[in-house]
Write a structure and sequence with these properties.
The chain is α/β, with parallel strands linked by helices. The chain has helices at 7-11, 20-27, 36-48, 67-75, 85-93, 110-119, 128-137, 175-185, 204-217, 247-264, 277-280, 313-317; strands spanning 31-35, 55-60, 79-82, 101-104, 122-125, 142-146, 188-193, 225-227, 270-273, 284-296, 299-304, 323-326, 339-344, 353-360, 368-371, 392-396, 402-406. The chain has 2 domains: 7-34 and 282-415, Lyase, Ornithine Decarboxylase, Chain A, domain 1 (Beta Barrel); 36-277, TIM Barrel. It starts with 6 loop residues before the first helix and ends in a 13-residue tail after the last strand. The protein binds pyridoxal-5'-phosphate (PLP). Pyridoxal-5'-phosphate (PLP) binds next to helix 11.
């Protein structure tokens, strides 16, 4: 079998001996596919990368909230965060107990704050006004506040969540008001958190912001949780050999920083991280089928059934997902030279483009494509725009068996909420 491009998934044995087109035959195209062994590997890396016993890793369920994947993550000893009642439901469905859930929300109704207080270990609020609401919804409870450390990081301005241009967090100048509101409602300020942004590949901004949070935390007493958020990046450019984030050295730097601070400040609480992407992204990919190939002007368009409704990141952020090309059994790759090709979906928008001019071996109608690293912020962001139902999700188990972990939405499902 000579696929035009499959070296990466072969190198990690992603399909555990199965053929991608067999998966599409069984579950339909397009299809999200996850690999359990890879998910477990990333959980263990994150769980163990800081040699500090009082570190707790809370997987950020917004990256991918399929309860079957959450169950695997729970079985690796991670806790979880939630930021909506839907994520709470998925976390509970996966077996996480109240004590294992952190609720880190943004701009919610009082009813939601009350629900979160009842169903999670602790709630983090990110404005003075939400702290007031929380005080009314859950007087006397423990609470965390999200601070804006003034330092942001991330792959795109839309995912930088700290610094001057963001809606998130409370400015450190407002800390006196935090104390005042907590005192008025009998709230116990038990933790501080921050999240600088998503997908950093260099650790400096994360470490600078962590130092800043610790500096601020030195001014509080009675804290039990110091939460530094997530944002740990993964190398999306697999075929260009993009380097991985050096989490081993980041782990040592964090251990020195956190450990030293804990001793100096007699801190006996937990240090928390909230990674989402690092754990889930590489464990998933999206498979789809080439339905047509055509030229428009100088551009060769490879037309697929993978619209931006099911993989929104390229359209949202100009995000890059590397591509593999599989040729159905019996046919082999032509060996022809690479040429720039645009890979597009089936949605009625001219921005429905996965790649504009990616040099790849010539792709033919009927080929199966994989968009790699699609385990995080892909299915969880999918919609049924154009009334195209969302795909199924399948999980490849370590023994090579496959389990359907979410059924394909049907067109009839699109009528479910219509009275
Ligand atoms: C508060 C918070 N924590 C954690 C995360 C997870 O980020 P990532 O998936 O980049 O690790 C996010 C992502 O938006 C977030 O907003």
């Amino acid at each position: 079998m000579a696929d035009p491009r499959s070296a990466y998934t072969q190198s990690v044995d992603f399909y555990a001996g199965l053929r991608p087109e067999e998966l599409l035959c069984a579950y339909g195209s397009p299809l999200y596919v996850y690999n359990e062994a890879m998910l477990r590997l990333r959980c263990r890396e994150m769980r163990d990368f800081i040699p500090l016993h009082r570190l707790k890793v809370c997987y950020s369920a917004k990256a991918n909230a399929n309860p079957h994947l959450l169950e695997i993550i729970r079985s690796e000893g991670l806790w979880v965060d939630a930021m909506s009642p839907g994520e709470l439901l998925m976390n509970r469905r996966a077996g996480f107990s109240r004590e294992e859930i952190f609720y880190v929300c943004n701009n919610v109704h009082s009813e939601e704050l009350a629900l979160a207080a009842a169903q999670s270990r602790i709630v983090s609020v990110d404005s003075l006004s939400q702290l007031e609401d929380f005080g009314l919804a859950a007087p006397g409870a423990e609470v965390m506040t999200r601070l804006n450390p003034g330092i942001g990081a991330g792959h795109h301005r839309k995912v930088i969540t700290a610094g001057k241009e963001t809606k998130f967090g409370i400015n450190p100048e407002d800390i006196p008001q935090i104390h005042e509101i907590c005192a008025r409602h009998g709230l116990k300020l038990a933790g501080l958190n921050q999240h600088v942004g998503s997908l950093f590949m260099q650790p400096e901004a994360f470490l600078r912001a962590a130092r800043r949070l610790l500096e601020l935390a030195g001014g509080f007493s009675g804290l039990k949780y110091l939460d530094f958020g997530g944002g740990f990046g993964i190398p999306y450019r697999k075929y260009a050999g993009e380097a991985r984030l050096d989490i081993a050295s980041l782990g040592r730097a964090c251990a020195d920083l956190f450990g030293g601070w804990a001793v100096k400040n007699a801190y006996s609480g937990l240090f928390i991280l909230e990674p989402g992407r690092y754990i889930a992204a590489e464990a998933g990919l999206l498979l789809g089928t080439v339905t047509a190939v055509k030229n428009n002007g100088p551009t060769r368009y490879v037309c697929t059934d993978m619209g931006f409704n099911i993989l929104p990141r390229p359209m949202l952020y100009g995000a890059f997902h590397d591509v593999e090309i599989y040729r159905p059994a019996g046919e082999s790759a032509s060996g022809a030279a690479e040429l720039p090709q645009a890979i597009v979906g089936n949605i009625c928008e001219s921005g429905d483009i996965l790649h504009r001019d990616y040099p790849l071996p010539p792709i033919d109608k009927g080929d199966v494509l994989a968009l790699l690293d699609a385990g995080a912020y892909c299915y969880s962001m999918a919609s049924s725009y154009n009334q195209r139902p969302r795909p199924a999700e399948a999980l490849i188990r370590p023994d090579g068996s496959v389990r359907l972990i979410r059924r394909r939405e049907s067109v009839e499902n699109l009528l479910d909420l219509i009275p």
